[in-house]
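quick one before i forget lol
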Amino acid sequence: MSKEFDVIVFGATSFVGQIVCEYMHSQYAGHEVKWAMAARSQHKLDSVKHELGIEDVPTLIADASDQESIDALSAQTKVIISTVGPYDLYGEPMVKACVKHGTDYVDLTGEPQWIRKMIDRYEADAKTSGARIVHCCGFDSIPSDLGVFFLQQQAKQRFGKPCDQVKTRVKAMKGGASGGTVASLVNVVKQASKDAKLRKLLANPYALCPEGHRFNAHQNNVNHAKYEEETGSWVAPFIMASINTRVVHRSNALLGNEYGERFLYDEAMMTGKNAKGGLMGWAVTATLSGLMVGAALPPTRWLLENTVLPKPGEGPSKEEQRNGFFDFRLFGSTPQKQHIVVKVTGDRDPGYGSTAKMLSEAAVCLAHDTEMNDVEGGFLTPASAFGETLIKRLEQNAGLTFSVLA
């Protein structure tokens, strides 16, 4: 069925939505991609278009609380980019609509409990309609998921087999806090504090794997500071590991256990090799623990939300976005003790500048790359949906690099 647009950015007036629109205009203005901006307020859309200097881009009106308007929007395009979060509160109507109309979909959610809910409710229908639903197409979880995919392809070329254990370590990162991400995190903690079933799901590293997927290894996570010989550094818990590790394990399952049936994966932050690194590691551990406890209790949650944490719609300045970056190191090993180290970097702040570029390129990849024609409908991950096709796009257009160090 012919669609009027290739890509529609839904939530175009949000903080990250504006950055996505700015990138889409700068990268694809006058090119073959026909795209539009959508939000619930025409006045705000007009204001954003004027501020960004993109007056020629079509605008559409849709409200996440109005299923009829969401259905109408999704029926007009090949791909929806959704930036309307927290997704557990506002995201389901668009997923439902895209599944119904066979429209492809990408977002930047980091909410595993919501993804699990969407898979359970809509995956069968997505496979029937052909809709490719790809969550986590921003900093959560493209660098991790495609980084592991890249490492495994390199390992198979060098060793003839994949690595059964991979560790992603954040070597360096600079960027402002995301108000939307913080709001999603607080919402998850708030729900989990009242729901034992949800706490169990959030603690399960295989929570997003398909039903019936076999687990032949016990997966541990980094939950406190420790020194690692293989990385030569102290490490501390990484706040995004709770979503990234689940996505990577789902990728392995969807790829037919391409990484192995006993594949292990974890993530952490590198804090330094000496005593100062150890102190920093324990400081990070204490800070994250305090944030989780504070977000779970109503009085401290109110205090955090109103005095400390950034609010949805708030984020780093354009200068901070340009000066931000991230540097991941992935350490892989085979059962025969063969080792490979991979580096994944981004040239903008992770939560906004780089995320906007990753999200946009994922959408254009679905809409335009002929390699995507053979990808069937369903709830996919970046690695299982895009693989090498998106890696090439990200390196060519989005300032990411994927390279083998050793």
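fyi The mean pLDDT is 91.
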